[in-house]
Amino acid sequence: MAEIHSTSKQDSKSSHSGKRQALISLSDKKDLTLLGNGLQELGFTIVSTGGTASALENCGVSVTKVEELTHFPEILDGRVKTLHPNIHGGILARRDRAHHTEALENHGIGTFDVVVVNLYPFYDTVSSSAGVSFEDGVEKIDIGGSAMIRAAAKNRKDVLVVVDSNDYPALLEYLRGVHNDPQFPRSLARKAFQHVASYDSAVSEWLWKQNYFIPGLTVNLSRKSEVRYGENAHQKAAFYADKSLAEVNAGGIATAIQHHGKADAAWNCVCDFSKPTCVVVKHTNPCGAASRNDIVEAYCLAVKADPVSAFGGIVAFNVELDEVLAKDIREFRSPTDGETRMFYEIVVAPKYTEKGLEVLRGKSKTLRILEATKNSKGKLSLRQVGGGWLVKKPMILHRTISSSMPSLRRLRKKMSSMMLSLHGLV
């Protein structure tokens, strides 16, 4: 076993000179110049590893290499470089405890005031369309980075931990005293633990790949946007995208592009039809659905099924929305009085023509126009129930409907009814 050497007290004094220290180790080096120069201007001694240290030096930033503190080289192809008491002692030591400070002095360990780390790109590697071998995937599992992030986040009263380059400006402002929000260190720590948790959930999911009902399931959600309200007008709500590996390029309403909520029920249903189809839903309740070769005709029939409920609802199409259809949506009058223009909260389609989009944008300032990719088949379904979640395999729609041979028209009608019922719309 290799011996771990600690630095002497004299080494510590000469290395640190009482200056504040920042530890930086990054895979994603976005805005590294901003961060490095900003910390250097504030008088920080910057300690860094491998490629990050080289990148900082190329930016003109003075760097102390990690091995200068540990007196130990990187080993095992870089698997071990920061897992050392001279690093973790400086991160985890509590400044308000005399015996912690005494221990650091006895072993010649300097403290870190800022830790900036992001992790190996495991998620991007294993979700790449090019594919990845098991061994290559394993090598992208970060160990030292996760340990430093967790250590710094645990010691949030004394250490500022940053995992997102978008937080660099706020960090520098805080250190300059531009703002003195007492909750800022805690907010960074929360974000850090969430970052590591999401990372670990991706690793676990990947290792359990091809297994449906695994012993433990972590649902990795990331807030995408706040919405005006939830399923009811009085409910506050936010929309979260599923960051699970199974959802990569899987389509669905969460991946929709908002051009100008709760469109999921209508979108899931309309995606199951092969013919041009329109589905109208309000508060996840069905208002109408119709399939025709002419999508404008399908739209009119779907609205006429229950125009009162359709007013203020969600309209979903499974074909490109062009100028002709957009004009009909914009000008269509309610069948109840023949005068009132139909109002919708959301329109969702797989694609829009430029003219179609232009016409729809002029319908209402509050209309949300979503462009979504069709859902992939075979995904697990999760449904929240009291005290837990129901996890279901995907429903397979078999083509055998009757032992007798029905007419083609009746067969199509049966199939449509079954697809609607699968989504709870009948």
Automatic annotation (TrEMBL):
Location of the region described as Disordered in the Swiss-Prot/TrEMBL record: 1-20
GO biological process: purine nucleotide biosynthetic process
Gene Ontology MF term list: hydrolase activity; transferase activity
InterPro entries recorded: AICAR_Tfase_dup_dom_sf, Cytidine_deaminase-like, MGS-like_dom, MGS-like_dom_sf, PurH-like
SMART domains: AICARFT_IMPCHas (SM00798), MGS (SM00851)
PANTHER family on file: BIFUNCTIONAL PURINE BIOSYNTHESIS PROTEIN ATIC, BIFUNCTIONAL PURINE BIOSYNTHESIS PROTEIN PURH
Family: Belongs to the PurH family.
Name of this chain's protein: MGS-like domain-containing protein
Organism of provenance: Castilleja foliolosa
